[in-house]
């Protein structure tokens, strides 16, 4: 993947051994089963987003998938434009280094990504375990459909 530029890069974040926190990884593994047009790439990032700084800095558009907790009922699907959020200044989070810190680094390197969209599902629980909760698992197909549609719109 080195020295390429992606029109859209989909990143799956999360920890597979922490139940609903593995959402992003489960989602990208399903997305990888689809046939994609050139210019799209799907990466299972897990909890090591720093390892993908080069790819992120070569992508016009990024779509991030992760568990997002705002206290709404489990299974609620979220979609945010990264640049519309007032991010706290902290550079570390539960995944080691924060998404805002990585995006800032990538933009210093290459002025990319130009656009970052975040998709997520409200978790029911984030506990030691290797399965998604029922509400998150039920919402996963709709989330995958929404992300697939967004990728297709970017590529058109």
TrEMBL record:
Q: Does the keyword Protease apply?
A: yes
Which keywords label this protein?
Answer: Aspartyl protease, Hydrolase, Protease
Q: What is this protein called?
A: Hydrogenase maturation protease
What PANTHER family does UniProt report for this protein, alphabetically?
HYDROGENASE 1 MATURATION PROTEASE (PTHR30302), HYDROGENASE 2 MATURATION PROTEASE (PTHR30302:SF1)
| Record bears the keyword Transferase | no
In terms of InterPro entries, this protein maps to: Pept_HybD-like_dom_sf, Peptidase_A31
Question: Would you identify the family this protein belongs to, as annotated?
Answer: Belongs to the peptidase A31 family.
Q: Which domain of life is it from?
A: Bacteria
Which species is this UniProt entry from? Desulfoscipio gibsoniae DSM 7213
Q: Name one GO biological process term.
A: protein processing
């Amino acid at each position: 993947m080195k020295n390429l530029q992606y029109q859209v890069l989909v990143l799956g974040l999360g920890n597979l051994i922490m139940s609903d926190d593995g959402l992003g990884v489960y989602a990208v593994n399903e997305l990888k089963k689809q046939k994609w047009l050139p210019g799209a790439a799907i990466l299972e990032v897990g909890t090591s987003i720093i390892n993908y700084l080069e790819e992120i800095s070569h992508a016009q558009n990024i779509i991030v998938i992760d568990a997002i907790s705002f206290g709404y009922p489990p299974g609620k699907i979220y979609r945010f434009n990264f640049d519309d959020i007032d991010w706290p200044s902290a550079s570390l989070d539960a995944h080691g280094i924060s998404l805002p810190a990585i995006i800032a680094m990538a933009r210093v390197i290459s002025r990319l990504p130009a656009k970052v969209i975040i998709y997520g599902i409200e978790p029911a629980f984030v506990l030691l375990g290797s399965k998604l909760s029922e509400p998150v698992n039920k919402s996963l197909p709709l989330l995958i459909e929404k992300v697939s549609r967004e990728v297709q719109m970017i590529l058109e």
